[in-house]
Backbone:
């Protein structure tokens, strides 16, 4: 009786706002059905669609070994168990907030201060994004988001909130940089369609570009939002993945230098999922300079608090300044080395990637391999990459990129050897493509429709609903 | 630094920035007396030695009577963290963000829920959706079952937090099913019908009924016959039934609690696609800080959608791991459940008997961490104002924070929820002595 079941659910439950009905699902399915393993399944699909930081776990594991008191389950820490287990105050453990504030300061080279009382917890950055949207905008209102952007913004910012996203188109003509003209154009487009814009969401460092915003861009964004009297949300989730110049500049620094700017408009989203590699712990942070938003978001955090067991452990870990210093330096160095190897490998086969200094991925330029400069051709190429080359990468269309041919390739969720295998496979693709072989190998799929509707999100690259026991089954990109 | 509350815009600029309607509403419910008492407690908390005349917190439904059992378990089972087995799992655990949740955790929860119900119902781990607490579970289900402007029927008196959890961000209305002391606050068919008509006459589309079983604040289980009737009503109107069974392990005796799951199984699963159970470990295990909630739905579409939505509110993988181990130890859980029930029953008897000696009646209860106390004989008039005046008096003079019935939307003034499991027996005795003295003084003044 599926029919009668379906209609008695809400509109939110019945629509596609969850984003999992996307065609890009096939990449995940292909990986889950046939995951690469160096010895057991060397022809399997290599997962390069997962933005996870797995390069520095040894440092964390060493710390955990040396600090049994941080866990409430060890003999050393068990005396704390009761107090921690009954603590449900949505302000969070003071030591946790202090440690997170301190950590965020360290990531920014101690160039700014963060007030622990402005730190609000959430269910991962996923929860923080949604909570902030609930606080700042009503259903039908909009947020401006530069493209290409993290696919799950569609779900996180719009699914249950009823808020819309208006893209600020960026393209390769200037390295995908956001311009004042671009912002104004998007703002005007929204106004013309009678949509009230409530804010601008930036992702700095950028996913999927792997670039950072410079001081000029951030100042421009701050002045634009002040002029329009709209909010400025900066998702700084990759802040500690910056491994090279240009270095990371946080909106916090620009705000501190701009006495005329309105702090009530500025909010930062953060998480430990990328910088530390702890997506399972669901540590989302919302930091706002607006008192009312802090109060409201804190009340809403009841819907997504961080487990006190986890707060306790991280309070201890992040307060260890020696460990933090060592980790940040080493993690950045390893990411930098890995990215360099990846990009050099690509360059050697004539494949370019956007120059970037951050992130767990690079933005690969495969425009030359497209049969035509269309998204249909991008989709076709993507299917070849997934099904024939056996690598799951994320096509630009899933990030709402305005130009076909760009792909995000993650490199920090695997070991070096696997990356080398991936590079050699890509190399074969490039060679074959040059000789026209790729055409013959392209398999047709029944539906190649890609809707480019930006207002209502039709497809996003999302994790699979899969019963597979792969340890990394679910992710958001 | 102090954060100013919402009442005053803090902006120094000329044009104040507007927030959303949700942000400026007070549907979060924190202005209610339920929370005002907490402030008084926070400012002057009782402590046996350092502050014996402070406010005793009896407004917090927390279970602290069985912590020693958990601590003993940990003592026996905490492994040496330097062993590679433990630390190498740290990485896998830290990376695990699959919204299905750890299978071992879901299996352990399913088995724990079965044990609580004496094996009278089976739970499929594949139907368990994880959420960060029952707070999140109830909100999430509301988003799935109802559109903004729709209504859920909820029997009164009910948990004050529902006003926020079910309504605040969802835009859904709560229409009360009025229950009263004439029949021990049981849900009657006519009350259910009235609530439904009430919603209709207000132009609200009813999407479901949400019951709490065992009930908060009544401290009593819902009778089987009532569950049957509510199920039939749901079938008739084609609406959902959410059963919040968060206190299921706190029923004083296994035999007294009947879960909706049992009733459904007895019916061969007929109508189950409309049913959903909410559970959490915050009360039965006393672990509110860990944020462990679940939704158990018999409806496949709800399970799938809830799982997707749980992305906003997953349980820390670290906590899932800990509980997977603990709850799959069936010898431990069986012992815990039995001992916990017994201790809660003892506490309940202690408080009800002592109150009885002071001439105060309580609703006959058989579950939960609180009793439902009738102070209506002490009201000058049976009005909400008098109830609040009495509450204020008990807070300021007797220095007890208890929850006035009005904060639970009780239709009859004079009832109060008094929590007894969040303190030591000695503190409970002190509180009871204070109540006794208060009653004596009141009688003396009359």
Residues:
């Amino acid at each position: 009786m599926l029919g009668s079941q379906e209609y008695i659910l809400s509109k939110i439950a019945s629509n596609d706002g969850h984003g999992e009905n996307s065609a890009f699902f096939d990449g995940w399915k292909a990986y889950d059905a046939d995951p690469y393993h160096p010895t057991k399944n060397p022809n399997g699909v290599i997962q390069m669609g997962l933005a996870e930081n797995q390069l520095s776990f040894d440092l964390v594991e060493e710390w955990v070994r040396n600090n049994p008191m941080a866990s409430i389950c060890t003999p050393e820490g068990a005396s704390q168990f009761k107090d921690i287990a009954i603590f449900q105050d949505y302000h969070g453990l003071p030591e946790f907030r202090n440690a997170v504030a301190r950590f965020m300061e360290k990531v920014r080279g101690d160039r700014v201060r963060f007030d622990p009382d402005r730190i609000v917890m959430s269910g991962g950055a996923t929860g923080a994004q949604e909570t902030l949207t609930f606080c700042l905008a009503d259903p039908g209102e909009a947020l401006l988001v530069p493209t290409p952007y993290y696919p799950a913004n569609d779900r996180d910012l719009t699914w249950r909130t009823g808020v819309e996203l208006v893209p600020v188109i960026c393209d390769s003509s200037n390295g995908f940089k956001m311009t004042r003209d671009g912002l104004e154009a998007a703002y005007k487009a929204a106004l013309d369609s009678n949509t009230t814009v409530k804010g601008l969401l930036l992702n700095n460092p950028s996913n999927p570009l792997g670039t950072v915003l410079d001081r000029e861009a951030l100042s421009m964004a701050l002045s634009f939002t002040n002029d329009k009297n709209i909010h400025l949300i900066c998702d700084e989730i990759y802040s500690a993945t910056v491994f090279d110049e240009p270095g990371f500049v946080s909106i916090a620094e620009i705000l501190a230098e701009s006495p005329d700017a309105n702090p009530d408009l500025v909010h930062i989203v953060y998480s430990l999922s990328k910088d530390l590699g702890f997506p399972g712990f669901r540590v989302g942070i919302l930091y706002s300079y607006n008192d009312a938003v802090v109060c409201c978001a804190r009340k809403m955090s009841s819907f997504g608090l961080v487990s006190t067991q986890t707060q306790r452990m991280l309070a201890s870990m992040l307060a260890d300044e020696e460990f933090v210093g060592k980790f940040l330096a080493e993690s950045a160095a390893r990411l930098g080395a890995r990215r360099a190897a990846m990009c050099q490998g690509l360059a050697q086969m004539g494949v370019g990637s956007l120059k970037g200094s951050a992130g767990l991925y690079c933005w690969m330029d495969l425009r030359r391999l497209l049969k035509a400069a269309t998204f249909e051709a991008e989709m076709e190429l993507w299917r070849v990459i997934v099904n024939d080359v056996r690598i799951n990468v994320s096509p630009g269309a899933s990030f709402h990129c305005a130009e076909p041919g760009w792909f995000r390739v993650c490199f920090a969720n695997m070991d070096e050897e696997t990356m080398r295998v991936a590079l050699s496979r890509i190399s074969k693709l490039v060679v074959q493509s040059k000789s026209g072989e790729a055409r013959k190998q392209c398999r047709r799929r029944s539906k190649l429709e890609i809707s480019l509707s930006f207002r209502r999100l039709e497809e996003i690259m999302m994790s699979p609903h899969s019963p597979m026991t792969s340890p990394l089954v679910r992710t958001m990109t | 630094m102090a954060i100013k509350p919402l009442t005053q815009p803090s902006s120094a600029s000329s044009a104040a920035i507007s927030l959303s309607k949700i942000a400026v509403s007070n549907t979060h419910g924190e202005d209610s007396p339920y929370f005002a008492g907490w402030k008084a407690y926070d400012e002057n908390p009782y402590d046996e030695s350092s502050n014996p005349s402070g406010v005793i917190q009896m407004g917090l439904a927390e279970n602290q009577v069985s912590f020693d059992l958990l601590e003993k378990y940990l003592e026996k089972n905490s492994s040496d963290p330097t062993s590679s087995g433990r630390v190498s799992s740290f990485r896998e655990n830290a990376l695990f963000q699959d919204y299905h949740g750890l299978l071992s955790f879901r299996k352990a929860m399913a088995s724990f829920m079965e044990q609580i119900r004496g094996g009278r119902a089976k739970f499929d781990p594949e139907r368990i959706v994880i959420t960060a607490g029952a707070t999140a579970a109830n909100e999430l289900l509301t988003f799935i079952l109802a559109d903004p402007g729709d209504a859920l029927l909820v029997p009164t008196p009910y948990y004050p937090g529902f006003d926020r959890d079910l309504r605040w961000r969802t835009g859904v209305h709560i229409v009360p099913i009025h229950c009263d002391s004439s029949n021990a606050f049981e849900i009657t068919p006519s009350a259910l019908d009235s609530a439904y008509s009430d919603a209709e006459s207000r132009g609200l589309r009813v999407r479901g009924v949400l019951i709490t079983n065992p009930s908060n604040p009544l401290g009593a289980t819902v009778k089987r016959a009532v569950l049957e009737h509510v199920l039939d009503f749901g079938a008739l109107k084609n609406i959902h039934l959410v059963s919040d069974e968060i206190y299921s392990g706190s029923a004083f005796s296994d035999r007294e609690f009947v879960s909706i799951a049992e009733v459904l199984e007895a019916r061969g699963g007929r109508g189950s696609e409309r049913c959903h159970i909410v559970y959490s470990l915050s009360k039965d295990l006393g672990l509110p800080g860990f944020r462990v909630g679940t939704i158990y739905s018999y409806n496949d579409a709800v399970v799938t959608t809830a799982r997707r939505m749980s992305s906003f509110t997953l349980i820390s993988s670290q906590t899932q791991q800990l509980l997977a181990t603990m709850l799959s130890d069936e010898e431990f859980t069986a012992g815990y459940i039995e001992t916990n029930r017994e201790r809660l029953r003892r506490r309940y008897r202690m408080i009800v008997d002592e109150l009885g000696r002071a001439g105060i009646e309580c609703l006959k209860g058989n579950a939960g961490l609180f009793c439902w106390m009738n102070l209506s004989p002490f009201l000058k008039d049976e009005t909400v104002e008098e109830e609040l005046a009495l509450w204020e008096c008990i807070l300021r003079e007797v220095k007890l924070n208890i929850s006035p019935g009005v904060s639970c939307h009780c239709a009859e003034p004079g009832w109060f929820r008094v929590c007894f499991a969040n303190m030591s027996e000695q503190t409970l005795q002190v509180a009871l002595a204070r109540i006794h003295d208060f009653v004596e003084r009141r009688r003396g003044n009359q």
About this structure: DSSP finds 17 helices and 13 strands in chain A. The longest strand of chain A covers residues 197-203.
